[in-house]
Amino acid sequence: MEKTILDTVILGAGAAGLMCAPYAAAGGKTLVLDHAKAAGEKIRISGGGRCNFTNLYASPENYLSQNPHFCKSALARYTQWDFIELVGHHGIAWHEKTLGQLFCDGSAKQIVAMLIAELEQAGAQMWLQASITAVTRTSHGFDLCVHHNGADKQISCKNLVLATGGKSIPKMGATGFAYDIAQQFELPLIETRPGLVPFTFSEERFKPLAGIALPARLSNKDAQFDEALLFTHRGLSGPAVLQISNYWREGQEVNVNLIPDDTLFNALRAQRQEAGRKALTTELAKHFPGRLVEYLAGIWDLSGRLADQSDAALEALCQKLKHWPLTPSGSEGYRTAEVTLGGIDTNALSSKTMEAKTCPGLFVIGEAMDVTGWLGGYNFQWAWSSAVAAGRAIATKGS
Q1: Those residues with Cβ within 8 angstroms of residue 151's Cβ, 6 or more apart along the chain or in another chain
Q2: What sign does the dihedral 39-44-47-53 (CA atoms) show?
Q3: How far from the centroid of its chain's Cα atoms is residue 202's Cα?
Q4: Alpha-carbon torsion 25, 28, 29, 32, what sign?
Q5: Which residues of 89-110 are buried (b: 16+ CB within 10 A; e: fewer)?
Q6: b/e per residue, 331-344, with b = 16+ CB within 10 A?
């Protein structure tokens, strides 16, 4: 069987793999392999098809890892401003939606096309619908057995980059392949679990509220987020829920604050003077969706007229609305999770190059490792930053 000899093979044609390729290609022949039919599929579906490609406020504080310092070097050396400059160079129009989140004015496909154009301009190659059947360590680097275009092929390379992501959204082709390779080469793993994922509740608890969205503050002992809350047939979703899910473990309680701006008490007092004869629920419906008021009336005592509510009673009601403790029965799992928490232990990697300390030539980038960003473009920024760190290191080795 004919053997293809390369300098670098990148496993995964997602955000991190595509970003790494042109940098690695500066150090020699580079090939990107992926089992999917098209490159950048998660990019294509992200942000409602417009790709939330970075965040203006990206910083190490927006990432979770057992080693919170690991991400600092890569994020500092390739920042959100660097990626914004690349986007501008390709003439892609963008806008800030909210909270520093940047989206394409047009389509996420523009980001995919940009990354592929950069890859091709640098002279890197890409094989899609390529299945990797074996990876072995050799004295010169790595040998791979690959099935591509109906034939089995052998590839030899000095550098191998794991950019296959995590387990989230398996229908898009996500697998635990990076973890299998890591274990093969004795890199330790941090327990993986779904992240940025909706909560589920037993007995369709919130089915009567499905479709209702409103601003809220969700918190637990480790974090709090002020963003939209969405009730679903299965439970709770929306940005606030996805954010807090990264800090949640099964069996733990989450506090829901339905009045994060804390203005309801004064508003109800004023309404009591003007419309005291109206039902309390009628006046609450001016501040919350009617179905939500009806639901809350079923679990709390919201009877009587507004005029019958003393200041103490109104304050007690506001306290209930601020402190609504809920314990999810679970999450929707990897099926809908936007990211995978945990992964390859960063203590096994160089924070400057992303290279494995005990396996020279093996690099890990993007979601495959134990670095997870908040919702809002942070995970894409980690993909760009970690990919560039590895690509530059490979180029330096090859020069």
Answers
A1: none
A2: positive
A3: 26
A4: negative
A5: eeebebeeeeebbbbbeeebbb
A6: bbebebbbbbbbbb
| In 138-254, alpha helices (H) | 177-184, 239-245
- Residue 294 is inside which H or E element, if any? helix 290-299
Across the chain, how many H-helices and E-strands are there? 12, 21
CA-based angle 288:289:290, to the nearest 5?
A: 110
CA torsion 388-389-391-393 (nearest 10°) is 150
pLDDT of residue 276: 84
- Separation CA 92–CA 94 (nearest Å): 6
**Are the C-beta atoms of residues 245 and 283 closer than 8 Å to each other?**
no
Degrees (nearest 5) of the Cα angle 326, 329, 332?
A: 110
For residue 399, the model assigns a pLDDT of 66
Q: What's the whole-number mean pLDDT along residues 72-98?
A: 98
Is 384:15 a contact under the CB 8 Å cutoff?
A: yes
Helix axes 15-25, 378-398, angle to 10 degrees: 20
Q: What share of the chain is helix, strand, coil (3-state, %, to 5)?
A: 35, 25, 35
Instruction: Take residue 215 and report the two structure tokens written for it.
Output: 């601003």
Element containing residue 268 per DSSP (H, E): helix 264-275
Contact (CB, 8 A) for 33 and 184: no
Q: Please report, as a single letter, which amino acid is at residue 286.
A: K
Taking phi first (over 0 means left), then psi (-120 to 50 degrees means alpha), and beta for anything else, what does residue 9 get? beta
DSSP per residue over 330-364, as a string?
A: EE-GGGT-SEEEEEE-GGGB-TTT-BBSSSTTEEE
Tokens linked to 142: 């790595």
Residue 119 has pLDDT above 80, yes or no: yes
Task: Enter the DSSP assignment of 227.
Answer: E
Rg (CA), the chain: 25
Report yes or no on whether pTM surpasses 0.85.
yes
State the average pLDDT over residues 42-61: 97
Quick one: 115 exposed, middle or buried, by C-beta within 10 A (0-12, 13-18, 19+)? buried
How many other β-carbons are positioned within 10 Å of the β-carbon of residue 145? 15
171 has pLDDT over 90: no
pLDDT for 56 beyond 70? yes
Cα 291-295-297 angle, rounded to 5 deg? 115
